[in-house]
Amino acid sequence: MDRAAVDAIIRTLIEPFNKKGVDIAEGTTFAGDLEFDSLTVMDFVAAIEDEFDIIISMNQQAEIENFGQLVDAVSKLQGE
């Protein structure tokens, strides 16, 4: 699956979590822009893992701060 397809799917998955209706861009941060708390992050990560049949480790999660980094990480995990 190419990066654009991964991006489109994640944009669909993020909608229910985007309570403030923030426009999602590559640099949109989860903590700052979207104001995700730890529970929201866990739910969102679980939705991504289920959709793509991948596991995002806690170490990887700690390094992912914005939407673009998440798309890159999921794209990479898809290839493994």
Task: Give a structural overview.
The protein has 80 residues and is an all-alpha fold. The chain has one domain (3-79): Non-ribosomal Peptide Synthetase Peptidyl Carrier Protein, Chain A (Orthogonal Bundle), CATH 1.10.1200. It is 57% helix and 0% strand. It has four helices and no strands. The chain has helices at residues 3-14, 38-52, 58-63, 67-79. The longest helix is centred in the middle third of the chain and has 15 residues, at 38-52. The chain starts with a helix and ends with a helix.
Supply Rg. 11 Å
Q: How far apart, in Å, are the first and last alpha carbons?
A: 12 Å
Shape: globular
Helical/strand content category: mainly alpha
In percent terms, what proportion of residues is strand?
under 5%
Succession of helices and strands? HHHH
CATH topology: Non-ribosomal Peptide Synthetase Peptidyl Carrier Protein, Chain A
By CATH, the architecture is named: Orthogonal Bundle
How many β-strands, per DSSP? 0
What's the domain count?
1
Please report the number of helical segments. Answer: 4
Helix content, binned percent: 55-70%
Q: What is the mean predicted local confidence, pLDDT? A: 96
- CATH superfamily descriptor: ACP-like
The CATH first-level class comes to Mainly Alpha
Task: Outline the low-pLDDT stretches.
Answer: none
Largest sheet: none
